[in-house]
């Protein structure tokens, strides 16, 4: 096991100081205590050291705990991220890692359990680090801090809403009830997406096995009249992509009204759409595969020709 920096406690490989403090040593800002033999910051050079440390304090982007010296992670979260990196498949292509990142964010936005949210945030940071280290890919780095912040804001808003609606039940009972509902609905596909039905697992697995990069439950930004969330989004090129809707419920007036409104909005904005009707593909996986392959190929060609 490698050494840790004698000043900040972060991993330092074979050296007694991390990279930053080695650079400070070269500048004369770090000296060895002649009595203890331990490297220290030279306080004589920093007569206002308390003010300087205070000015460089930040908060961990995962747990929110205060950090010093401008680090984005606290020590606990740093090591948790390193452990999570070791658990991830480093042989995955960048596109698969990015897909996993978006899925982790999506799941964190949907649950109430803070431990599960923390785990998904660790996953997001670990994937970002792997993309940079293995592929020099900084795609998600540009949005990482914003995404983590939106997860925290979303959890706070959900908790605030729960508190305002409490009447006869205690807050703990309501949270447990919501958690149980989420747990009952959530099912996991081959690529790690958490979906809400066996048919959604089938569709998601087909996309994965066909090598079609996709994201689950994504907001349709082009539509401004109301919030529309598609079942799947397939990126194609230059910010253009294909939306997929699985129409699974039959005979529900409210559901049919929402379905009609969504279809009209997709048509209004001329958004490429693959529609899957449960009644047409029920118990016929081969027909479902053929439908997805043919529609995807057709719409992909149309998008590329329009660019």
Describe the structure.
By secondary structure, this protein is α+β, with helices and mostly antiparallel strands. It is built from 11 helices and 12 strands. It has helices at 19-26, 49-55, 75-87, 94-110, 114-135, 141-165, 171-185, 198-209, 253-268, 278-281, 285-306; strands spanning 3-4, 11-13, 30-32, 39-41, 58-59, 66-67, 187-188, 194-195, 215-219, 229-237, 240-247, 273-277. The chain has a 4-stranded mixed sheet. Strands 1-2 form a two-stranded antiparallel sheet. A hairpin with a 6-residue loop joins strand 1 (3-4) and strand 2 (11-13). The longest helix is centred in the middle third of the chain and has 25 residues, at 141-165.
Gross morphology: elongated
SSE-based structural type:
alpha+beta
Oligomer: single chain
In percent, how much strand structure appears in the residues? 5-15%
The portion of residues assigned to helices is: 40-55%
Radius of gyration: 25 Å
Strand order in the largest sheet? 9-10-11-12
Beta-strand segment tally: 12
The biggest beta sheet is recorded as: 4 strands, mixed
- Report the average pLDDT across residues: 84
N- to C-terminal distance: 53 Å
Task: Give the helix tally.
Answer: 11
pLDDT < 50 stretches:
43-55
Order of SSEs: EEHEEHEEHHHHHEEHEEEHEHH
Provide the number of structural domains: 3
Gist of the model:
It is elongated and about 80 Å long. The chain has helices at 19-26, 49-55, 75-87, 94-110, 114-135, 141-165, 171-185, 198-209, 253-268, 278-281, 285-306; strands at 3-4, 11-13, 30-32, 39-41, 58-59, 66-67, 187-188, 194-195, 215-219, 229-237, 240-247, 273-277. The protein contains eleven helices and twelve strands.
């Amino acid at each position: 096991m490698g050494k840790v920096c004698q000043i900040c406690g972060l991993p330092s490989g074979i050296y007694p100081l991390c990279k930053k403090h080695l650079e400070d040593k070269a500048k004369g800002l770090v000296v060895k205590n002649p009595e203890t033999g331990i490297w220290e910051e030279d306080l004589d050079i920093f007569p206002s050291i308390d003010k300087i440390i205070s000015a460089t304090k930040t908060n961990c982007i995962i747990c929110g705990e205060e950090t010093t010296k401008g680090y984005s992670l606290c020590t606990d979260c740093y090591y948790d991220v390193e452990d999570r990196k070791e658990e991830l498949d480093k042989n995955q292509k960048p596109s698969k890692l990015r897909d996993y990142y978006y899925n982790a964010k999506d799941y964190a936005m949907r649950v109430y359990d803070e431990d599960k949210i923390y785990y998904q945030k660790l996953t997001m940071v670990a994937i970002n680090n792997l993309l940079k280290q293995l592929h020099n890919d900084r795609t998600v780095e540009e949005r990482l801090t914003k995404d983590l912040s939106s997860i925290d804001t979303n959890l706070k808003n959900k908790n605030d809403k729960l508190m305002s609606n409490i009447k006869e039940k205690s807050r703990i009972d309501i949270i447990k009830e919501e958690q149980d509902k989420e747990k009952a609905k959530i099912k996991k596909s081959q690529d790690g997406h958490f979906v809400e039905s066996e048919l959604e697992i089938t569709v998601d697995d087909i996309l994965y096995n066909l090598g079609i990069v996709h994201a689950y439950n994504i907001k349709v930004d082009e539509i401004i009249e109301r919030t529309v969330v598609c079942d799947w989004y397939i990126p194609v090129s230059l910010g253009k992509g294909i939306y997929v809707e699985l129409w699974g419920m039959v005979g529900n007036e409210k559901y049919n009204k929402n379905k009609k409104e969504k279809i009209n909005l997709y048509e209004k904005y001329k958004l490429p759409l693959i529609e899957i009707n449960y009644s047409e593909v029920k118990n016929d996986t081969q027909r479902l595969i053929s439908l997805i392959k043919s529609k995807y190929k057709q719409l992909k060609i149309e998008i590329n020709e329009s660019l």
